[in-house]
Amino acid sequence: MLPNSGTDLDFDYYNITFAFGYDELHDDYKVVEFFGAEHETGVYETQLKVYSRRTNSWKILSNWPGGDTFGGSGKFLNGAIHWSVCKFDRPFEWVIVAHDLATDVFIELPLPNLEDDDDVIFEVKILEGCLALYCEHNLYMDAWVMKEYGVGKSWTKVFRIPFFLDFRDHQLVRPCPLFFSADGKTLINYGTSLRVYDLSDPQPHQFSSSLEVEATTYIESLVSPNFEDEVIIGRTLPQEIITEIFLRLPVKSLLRFKSVSKRLLSLISSSDFVKAHLRTSTKNNVYIHDKLIFGSKTFDMELYTYPIHSMIESSVSYDPVHAVAGSVYSVTDENLKFNHVWLDCSDIEPDEMTFLVGSCNGLVCVSFSSNSLILWNPTTSKSKMLPDSGTVLDFEHYGISYAFGYDELHDDYKVVEFLGFVGETGIYEIQVKVYSMRTNSWKILSNWPGGDTFGGSGKFLNGAIHWSVCDFDRLANWAIVSHNLSTDTFVELPLPNLGDDVRVEVAIIRGSLAVYCEHNVYMDIWIMKEYGTRESWTKVVRIPFFLDFWDHEFFRPHPLFLSVDGKVLVNYGSSLKIYDSNNPQPHQLSTTWSVAATTYVESLVSPNMYEGNPV
User: b vs e for 19-42, b when ≥16 Cβ sit within 10 Å of the residue's Cβ?
Assistant: First the structure.
């Protein structure tokens, strides 16, 4: 029970409302009381008070910028309470006021463009982890989401709920949306009932004239409301049991637990825990932690993530009305329902193309057309710009590609740069460089065994980068070259019997070495079930193309993932689609390569682990 705030409610006309949030800087939970009242003099005044759980006391703030919330409660996001406020001197001008709980500073955030509609009532909300607004017009309600916090241009209207009557003419409770799902279903409080309203199949509303139902959303946690208490399991369970429990939690939950106490912060941030959590979450064989990350290759690309097992099982469609069966993503679609993630590319020129090289242990390697490189954890949002490799690309004819993996012997993440070029003498030369995260530097290797990758990227498995390589003097003679990241030695692995007139690209499928073998009118996918053993190569899927790619300028479809039941996630160049070998659909071939995509697992691994502040 909190102590009384001491606010006097002896007024004929007043409103009082509260908000609740967390001050991360001071590790403190706070309650904000907003009080507005009309004094006997006829002057309407407002007063803000803040309760601190750490001090168990209230204080008064005197720097409120003005305006009234008209009973609307504040919503917490990014360390601040957000209020929808209407100015006294401008009765139709609403603003969002953000109250920073750490500094008690107030700032005004931009609103979306509402087409100069004066007759609208605002209520600030949090939707899908973003700042949102419910804008009630006469006959309908719009929901807007600020996809990039603080950026006015990022406001996006996500849905509209028609009411079919004018609330100004009725004494009905305004419906209050509580939650919005990815498939367009909205949980609404109608005053006397809660109901799921489906935007794709709208039903009559259940309006009420009274507000009898209280509802909100929350997440389960171990946070104690009593500051003097530690987390309850910390007082009742041994450290070994606590660690075992936390090893089985998803990364997002662990990130929240970091702010609960210094003890948990130390545990979750330790390198031993990070490695143990990664081993625990990836030891299953159903890949429930695997995710797809994808988006447009242009610099300002919108990046999205989605669990692969959910995508495969449900064969989600980005446009269930117009899309081809199995479609997942298209660069032309503007109504995606996936999780939006941001990569800080502030040091990259705005006209550069973006490539997703690959991933390892939750880190994604991103390259740009200038050959700048970033290591990034999409789950924790931590990233690191790599130093320049020093490679000069002053050649008329060259090809450059990258690979990314982990050297377990030296506990080191490494990036390999492969460059092929025609030198001044007219001879085609190869140069291989290796970046070490531990030393934050590059070195040149001089023992490449020969052959070219022809732009194909390397794939990491069993401590080695694997390249599909073709001999210069025997263009039909493909091989797999394995580069051991611990010893920088190279060995050749056997391929299955593929015949002639084939293009080979190495891949990793379900934890095994694999190759995509492109023939004239079809592609075969082979898996090496026993690593290093030629006889274990098994053909698992054939994808027919119904045309000869050698006679067309189409982008070669690029498989990304293969499920146990034969469904293949394919990058077609400008779209992603699930191709079901048991129920084949027409391909979505493209003449451009405009989609970047790769898979990764969620982890706590930091790209800054060898620096002073890895967490």
Answer: bebbbeeeebbbbbbbbbbeeeee
Decide if 21 contacts 101 (C-beta within 8 A): yes
CA distance 363 to 380: 10
CA distance 477 to 467: 14
Instruction: Using alpha carbons, select from 569, 566, 564 the residue that is nearest to residue 595.
Output: 569
Whether the per-residue pLDDT at 315 is higher than 70: the answer is: no
Map residue 118 onto helix, strand or coil: coil
* Coil/strand/helix, residue 201: coil
For 585-599, how does the pLDDT look when each residue is reduced to its tens digit (9 = 90+)? 777 777 777 788 899
9-40 pLDDT, tens digit per residue, is 888 888 899 999 999 888 889 999 999 888 77
Residue 344 in tokens:
């800080």
Question: Pairing between strand 478-484 and 490-493?
Answer: antiparallel
The amino acid present at 429, given as its one-letter code, is E
DSSP state of 468: E
Q: What does R_g of the chain's alpha carbons equal in angstroms?
A: 29
pLDDT higher at 170 or 544: 544
Q: How far is CA 424 from CA 161, 289, 405, in A?
A: 67, 49, 33
Q: Which of 341, 438, 440, 340 is nearest to 386 (CA)?
A: 440
Q: CB within 8 A of 161, min separation 6: which ones? A: 140, 141, 143, 175, 177, 186, 188, 197, 199
Proportion of the chain in helix, strand, coil states, percent, rounded to 5: 10, 40, 50
Cα of first residue to Cα of last residue in the chain, in angstroms, is: 35
Q: Treating both helix axes as pointing N-terminal to C-terminal, what angle do 271-282 and 262-269 enclose, rounded to 10 degrees? A: 60
Dihedral angle, C-alpha 363, 537, 399, 373, nearest 10 °: 0
Which residues sit opposite 17 in a β-bridge?
34
pTM score of the predicted model: 0.62
| Average pLDDT across the chain, whole number | 83
58 closest CA partner among 71, 47, 42: 47
For a pLDDT cut of 70, what percent of the chain falls above it? 87
Q: What is the pLDDT of residue 351?
A: 72
**SS3 state at 240:** helix
How would residue 323 be classed by pLDDT, with cut points 50, 70 and 90?
very low
pLDDT at 151 over 90: no
Residue 585, token pair as written in the block: 């659909």
Cα angle: 52, vertex 54, 58; to 5 degrees: 30
Cβ neighbour number for residue 15 with a 10 Å cutoff? 15
3-state SS assignment for residue 133: strand
Handedness of CA 548, 551, 552, 553 (dihedral sign): positive
Cα–Cα distance measured from residue 389 to residue 372, given in angstroms and rounded to the nearest whole number: 9
